[in-house]
Amino acid sequence: MSNIVLISTLDTKAEEAGYLRERIVENGFETLLMDVGYGRRPTEMHAEVDRGMILAASGTGPAELERLTAAQDRDGLSGMVCRGAVAKLRELIAAGGVGGVISIGGTSSAVMASAIMNEFSYAIPQLIFTTAASLPSSFRFFGPGGITVMHSLTEVGGLNYILKEQLRIAAGAICGMAAAAAGIDRSSKRGKRIAMTTNGWCENTARLLPEKLGDEFEVVRFHAIGQPEVVMEKLIESGDFDGVIDLVPSSITNARFAGTRISWDRRLTVAGERGVPQIIAPNLINVISRMREDTKEQREETSRRRHYYVDRLRVLLWLTGEELLDMAPAYAERINLSTGKAKFLFPSKGWLSIERDGSGLLDQDAENAFMEEMKRLLKPGIEVIEVDANIDDEAFADAVANELRGAL
């Protein structure tokens, strides 16, 4: 029988954790209780993974623990707990029998739980039940671990009829997820697996590529808005993919200019370091993605840049030619880490579907200068190929498919 790992702070949430555990057992699963509390308040509830085990697994000595506790260093203490919890959960998963993971609590519990869960594969269902789901920053809980977040209608503290109903539903959710995951056969594989980043500014090419590659390839699309790119690269690192079509590596530009499409500091390095063949295109690398705000700063920025209002929430702002040229070393440095085949395909008639002649958005001189600089900076063996098309034209999709076949 699969176990559900229940993560809770037993110094503050013992009663609630106990009620949830009973509901999980009613659904036909056993539980392994993990106590991630670090307060001084003792608890009499037994945890299969208790504080002592987590402390030992974290590598934190008694003196350091005493220092953190005396200083009331919550950040240091939670970091210690997360390290230990990750180590213990990794042991449990390696031993087999973990069908899912669930945590309950407020913001602090949710922050710790997401840090722990995101270290593990999406293949293990993971659920955070928290009042913090309503926070504007709750998007930070989601990551490569495939976490599901459930909003608690009441404070997770003091059992009452509403909380009991919600915990019963949460138990049903994680048990249903675990049962469904247990029935998935991950041993089968249809052809070579290709990871592909995409978004609405190269949608036609992304749609055409699976057709052009044929049944011997299975293309998995990742929306290039930040966290999905991290998921993709963690899966590449785990050996899930045979090749990569990175149409939208724009996270690097957004990180430089504080845009919204930011992923992580390893972006565009993982496939190269592992020697996975990759085809790279420049969709959105000449653009800053922003949320629309009625501020003096944004009005001034918009007035001096080519821009495009996507909708009432978003705006695209184009880099100047000088700024774009200055980005070349950042992209080249990462691509130069490649130990396998890598090719950079440049569409000469626009890097976004809306960059067309007469649109007022296409700056071919700036894009050509960037391409020439990349030719100069990229190490020998990495091809820079110019394609006489817009990035969203069928001719560009043909070129990507042909070059990928040649790289594999």
Q: Tell me about the biggest sheet? A: 6 strands, parallel
| Oligomeric form | single chain
Mean pLDDT: 92
Structural class: alpha/beta
Determine and state the CATH class of the largest domain.
Alpha Beta
**How many beta-strand runs?**
14
- Helix and strand sequence: EHEHHHEHEEHEHEHEHHEEHEEHEHEH
CATH superfamily of the largest domain: Uncharacterised protein family UPF0261, NC domain
Which CATH architecture of the largest domain? 3-Layer(aba) Sandwich
Helical amount: 40-55%
How would you sum up this structure, described in words?
- This protein is α/β, with parallel strands linked by helices and 408 residues long.
- It has 2 domains: 3-182, Rossmann fold, CATH 3.40.50; 192-407, Rossmann fold (3-Layer(aba) Sandwich), CATH 3.40.50.12030.
- Helix content is 43%, strand content 18%.
- The protein has 14 helices and 14 strands.
- The strands form 3 sheets. Strands 7-6-8-9-13-14 form a 6-stranded parallel sheet, with helices on both faces. The chain has a 5-stranded parallel sheet with strand order 2-1-3-4-5, sandwiched between helices. It has a 3-stranded antiparallel sheet with strand order 10-12-11, covered by helices on one side.
- Strand 3 (98-105), helix 5 (107-117) and strand 4 (126-130) form a beta-alpha-beta unit.
- The radius of gyration is 24 Å and the shape is elongated.
- It starts with a strand and ends with a helix.
- The mean pLDDT is 92.
